[in-house]
Design a protein that fits this description.
It contains 18 helices and 20 strands. Helix content is 33%, strand content 20%.
């Protein structure tokens, strides 16, 4: 049995130990404020049980949570109790650990990064500083309403020689601030509220202790939020690194297939964007067909092998492996990649592409192959089922014996209702292929976010956008993910 802290919200702040336990668990009992994607590494057969609490919404009573954990552990299961932040910092992990102890259940505690140091750091507020604060106190801003009287000593907190960090403090901010001031805390002391610390959309509102409640109400700050009181809050102006990221405050939609989306999404988040992943397509392998097996078995007979996407590169080598072959089978062939991304995918399998055009379109690959002799040679074009015929037609005209082999097909993904709602306020929608354009516009219809600026990876994708009746705001000069990101950043700097 494991009481595990999932950290404050940014998935990158989850510990290695927490991820290992999630991957191994038979059952995971999780809270509301765990990081997005925290459960992605769980086994397909693992039980995922939500036991979170939300203000104003019926929830599982704390005693029942302890009973459920006990029953699961006694059944011989590997059980993870996954909690936001740290289990022992306002996380009721102590209560759950005591319940397990009383039931005779052995457990391990896995600490997590708590919001009091993480959200403040993301806001550019050091909770301690050589010149301002040699101590920090973590305080609950919302005590158990069943208590007969407060457990907080307001006089002691007012006299505390350092930083005060209030968890769950938005609802009672006005009352708490008034209590501190009445007990002698300086009303002009710097203060700040950090909303959704380390999460997408984090924002910080600064004021003084006396004026913070009004500022929070004016800016409509909502829970979860931390309240920071102390001179260190004034250092945010110099240290607020998160807000300086070029895409901070922008919402960007990623429409790539789920398997490829995570890399682009991670890059965008690193640039400060709030990312909505709305995969428009999924990739379905076709390497079990007779044509693919035949091509893999005779790969050494081809004088030219053209690969038109990173997906195609990976699936080609998967097909070769099933045929008992590897990169050595391509030793006698000229290998052409449609662009840098495909070349990198080939390199990962030990093949340095001989021909790589800088523009990620079939026409550019045709031009790049102009000096490669193809007449009378067998040519393999490994691609998606629905690709254009520009490349194979051009090679046939030059006398090549062209085999077009479909390694995969793209299938439209059903639009997730929650994600569709989230994209309505998007600033950008990115498209990396014409198939994503077609699939997403058909799936959304008139729900496509009208105000979003569309970023296209290249001219073929851009043409599909215009064909769908939409406007391309930005088109990448370099037709890969790096080019798309560069184009988006350049546009964001001026809009």
């Amino acid at each position: 049995m494991y009481l595990v802290g999932a950290g404050p919200g940014d998935p990158g702040l989850m510990t290695r130990r927490s991820l290992e336990l999630i991957a191994d668990a038979d059952a995971i009992y999780y809270d509301r404020l765990i990081p997005p994607g925290a459960l992605d590494g769980a086994r397909d057969d693992a039980e995922l049980i939500y036991v979170g609490k939300q203000p104003g919404v019926p929830s599982v009573p704390q005693e029942e949570i302890g009973e459920r954990l006990t029953r699961a552990a006694r059944a011989g299961k590997s059980v993870v109790r996954l909690k936001g932040g740290d289990p022992f910092v306002f996380g009721r992990g102590g209560e759950e650990g005591e319940a397990l102890h009383e039931a005779g259940v052995e457990f391990e505690v896995v600490p997590g990064v708590t919001a009091g140091v993480a959200a403040t750091a993301y806001a550019g507020i050091p909770v301690t500083h050589r010149d301002d604060a040699s101590a920090v106190a973590f305080v609950t801003g919302h005590e158990d309403p069943k208590k007969a009287e407060t457990a907080l000593d307001w006089a002691a907190l007012a006299a505390f020689p350092g930083t005060l960090v209030f968890y769950m403090g938005v609802k009672r901010l006005g009352e708490n601030a008034a209590a501190l001031i009445a007990a002698g805390r300086d009303p002009e002391e710097p203060a700040a509220a950090v909303e959704r610390g380390t999460w997408p959309g984090q924002r910080t509102v600064g004021a003084t202790l006396a004026t913070l409640a009004a500022a929070v109400e004016r800016e409509a700050v909502k829970a979860p939020a931390l309240i920071v009181i102390g001179d260190v809050a004034a250092r945010r102006e110099a240290l607020a690194w998160l807000e300086r990221r070029p895409l901070h405050g922008r919402t960007v939609v990623v429409t790539r297939a789920r398997a490829q989306a995570s890399g682009l999404a991670a890059r965008l988040r690193g640039l400060g964007a709030t990312v909505v992943e709305l995969p428009a397509i999924r990739i379905e392998s076709r390497i079990d067909t007779d044509e693919v097996r035949a091509a893999a078995a005779t790969i050494g007979d081809y004088g030219l092998v053209c690969v038109t996407s990173p997906n195609g590169a990976d699936l080609l080598f998967e097909a070769l492996a099933e045929a008992g072959r590897d990169a050595r089978a391509l030793a006698g062939a000229t290998v052409a990649a449609i662009g840098p991304g495909t070349a990198r995918a080939l390199a990962a399998h030990g093949i340095a592409a001989d021909v790589v055009p800088q523009r990620f379109v079939a026409e550019a690959l045709v031009e790049a192959l102009a000096d490669v002799e193809v007449e009378g040679k067998r040519v393999l074009v490994a691609r998606a089922a629905e690709a254009r015929n520009v490349l194979p037609d051009a090679l046939k005209e030059r006398g090549g014996e062209v085999d077009v082999v479909a390694l995969y097909e793209t299938v439209r993904e059903a639009a997730d209702a929650e994600a569709v709602e989230a994209i309505q306020a998007a600033d950008y929608v990115t498209f990396t292929s014409s198939s994503t354009v077609k699939s997403l516009t058909e799936a959304l219809g008139d729900r496509f976010p009208a105000a979003a600026r569309i970023v296209s990876i290249g001219p073929v994708t851009g043409a599909a956008v215009r064909e769908a009746g939409l406007e391309v705001a930005v088109e990448a000069d370099r037709h890969d993910v790096e080019g798309l990101l560069a184009a988006l950043l350049a546009d964001a700097a001026t809009h």
